[in-house]
Design brief:
The protein has 243 residues and is of the alpha/beta class. 37% of the residues lie in helices and 28% in strands. The strands form 2 sheets. It has a 6-stranded mixed beta sheet with strand order 5-6-7-3-8-9, sandwiched between helices. Strands 2-1-4 form a 3-stranded antiparallel beta sheet, with helices on one face.
Length: 243
């Protein structure tokens, strides 16, 4: 019997874009007090609704600007929906902008504790998994070097290693399987596949057709913030490619 673990109910995200260029806070306050601020409303998501069952691997497809990353951030709790509701069962681990929370002045080792705490891990838990994180990231002596000296690939590898140290109920992936060198891509994909085998539910954004075919069972297609298809991953991919 299927079990619903995620419900997205009529979710919209609205942004107000000013028509005038405002360069500083003083100018903004003056324009605000004089009622000289005019806005245009932009719908990044427009009434999106779907459910995800336990063990589903859902591809979220659409062209750039369709609302894919916005949807993932709302589900992850990074953004708040302007309208609608999201409910879920179990813990969510988002792999969105890997390493975005790193402090560049701190070493990789110090950032393991910093980034881990941002993901909700306790200090004792991080300490118990420290060696495992370092080994998987394969940074060697660079683990004690300030992150400001890391390449983007090194930061992503460390971020991925920290974020995937637990087994989440719901895993959110936003193009993260494309980071790092060939060896790390293979290693990270194997780790993700191991999670799949253990029944982890996945929301997956990728422009890689082969990855979608290989990893996903269901799919939705977004177009300018609206959901235009929900069903099998194969048919979702076909509709996306036709657009």
């Amino acid at each position: 019997m299927s079990e619903t673990v995620l419900t997205v109910d009529n979710v919209s995200v609205k942004y107000r874009l000013t028509e005038q260029k405002v360069d500083n806070l003083k100018e903004y306050i003056i324009r605000f007090l004089k009622h000289q601020l005019n806005y245009k409303e932009f719908l990044a998501l427009d009434g999106v609704s779907f459910t995800v069952e336990k063990g589903d691997r859902l591809a979220i497809l659409g062209s750039n600007g369709a609302g894919k990353s916005t949807l993932l951030k709302v589900v992850a709790g990074v953004l708040k929906a302007s309208e609608g509701e999201i409910s879920h069962e179990g813990n969510i681990v988002p792999l969105l902008e890997l390493g975005a929370g790193f402090d560049p002045q701190y070493s990789g080792a110090e950032n393991i504790f910093l980034y881990g705490s941002m993901l909700g891990y306790s200090k004792d838990f991080i300490q118990s998994k420290f060696d495992e994180i370092v080994e998987f990231a394969d940074l060697g002596q660079f683990i004690n070097v300030p992150v400001k000296n890391y390449s983007s690939g090194m930061r992503a590898r460390l971020g991925f290693s920290i974020a995937t140290i637990v087994e989440p109920d719901i895993l959110i992936l936003d193009e993260v399987l494309s980071v790092g060198d060939a060896a790390f891509k293979k290693k990270s994909e194997k780790k993700i596949m191991d999670m799949f085998d253990k029944g982890t539910t996945v929301l997956f954004v990728s422009h890689n057709e082969d990855q979608v075919k290989k990893l996903c069972t269901k799919g939705i297609v977004l177009d300018h913030g609206k959901m235009i298809y929900s069903g099998s991953a194969e048919e979702a991919l076909n509709k996306y490619l036709k657009k």
